[in-house]
Design goal:
Length: 140
């Protein structure tokens, strides 16, 4: 693969209870384990960052596919939930739910566009076959 762009970040401290910063300084967060997992919750966590990144990336893919198909997706949104839980083998696993809203399209057309975006989104391509990703299309 020929890289078009490279993001670089450094984690310091204790990982989930530490700090992350990108080399350009645009991302600069204290990290904390969520309260639901026994932590303080007083900081960002990797699942939040992954959810934000996946939502933005998938929304870009949706817009790119829409442009190629000459489809109006104005007012569209993509919501993302990233779940973390036990994998039953002493480790952890993730699952993702993406919720796509395209007010300009009927449900079936919106679902077809979301399915096409799922084929080109880099996050979708990275996770395919590794974690469960569910894409739903909502009308609101």
């Amino acid at each position: 693969m020929e890289a078009l762009y490279t993001a670089e970040a450094l984690s310091t401290g204790e990982g989930r209870n530490g700090h992350v910063r990108t080399t350009d300084g645009t991302v600069d967060f204290d990290m904390a384990i969520p309260k639901e997992m026994g932590g303080s919750g007083n900081g960002a966590n990797p699942e939040q960052l992954f959810a934000a990144g996946y939502a933005a990336c998938f929304h870009s893919a949706l817009n790119a596919v829409a442009r190629m198909q000459k489809v109006d997706v104005s007012g569209s949104t993509v919501g993302s939930q990233v779940h973390i839980g036990s994998n039953g083998e002493g480790g952890f696993q993730l699952a993702v739910l993406l919720e796509v809203v395209i007010p300009t399209l009927e449900h079936d057309a919106a679902q077809a566009l979301a399915d096409a975006a799922h084929q080109v989104c880099p996050y979708s391509n990275a996770t395919r076959g590794n974690i469960e990703v569910t894409i739903t299309v909502s009308d609101d």
